[in-house]
Amino acid sequence: MAFFDCHFFSESLGVSASMHVILPQPTTGQIGMESRAVKEKHPTLYLLHGLSDDHTIWMRRTSIERYASEYGLAVVMPAVNRSFYTDMAHGYKYWTFISEELPALARSFFPLSEEREDTFAAGLSMGGYGAIKLALSCPDQFAAGASLSGAVDVVSLVYKRDAVEFGNMFGDLDQIKGSRNDLFHLAEELVRLEGPRPKLYQCCGTEDFLYEDNVRFREHCRAKNLELTYEEEPGTHEWGYWDRKIQSVLNWLPIR
Questions:
Q1: Which end of the chain is more exposed for a tag (fewer CB within 10 A), N or C?
Q2: Among the four given CATH numbers 3.40.30.10, 3.40.50.300, 3.60.40.10, 3.40.50.1820, the one describing domain 2-252
Q3: What are the pLDDT digits (tens) for 59-118?
């Protein structure tokens, strides 16, 4: 695998932005790494960080580079700060950045596939919310979305956290339910539309503070007959769990 620390200007944010990118490299001589044969343009996973982290965290806390090498998968890890992957009411347009500008820029910089069938999103905690939001909001762009211990019920979450900070992100907190920032609403909207539906993956530790929220979202998706793979096991909100489960996500992805 090749690793890139990439810094660039974002038109949608109006500031310089950062991402880490790992790309498949065909090699037989690298000790301890397995590399699948690669295409001209790589299948791509957009791997999203949580509320307190940045674009470096997946490389620092897991062996994502080693895991991805077995699948011939490129991984793009952007920084979005404490934005909850939204066009913030008082802040920057991070939803526009992550859903529109970032994929276009990444494909202009690197040999990444433009095909929906080769494009996936995953993330942990806040990033799990962002990944499912991408899959549900942009089903014509993403074939799959995976949430690890995701903040999937943002309506419930905002009343447990700092109301001022979440107000800066979302605006009027009473208006989140039924909006484009509500994953439950996005799931309902998706089933009303004709067209492709993304595969969804969801996991959460049974001792995680977000466990009950994840159970509610699981039941909602099942009621809507969405294609959801759900896994749970003992675990809390920590990197040992996420390092294990990202391997499950990579094995689950519908990589062609």
A1: C
A2: 3.40.50.1820
A3: 999 999 999 999 999 999 999 999 999 999 999 999 999 999 999 999 999 999 999 999
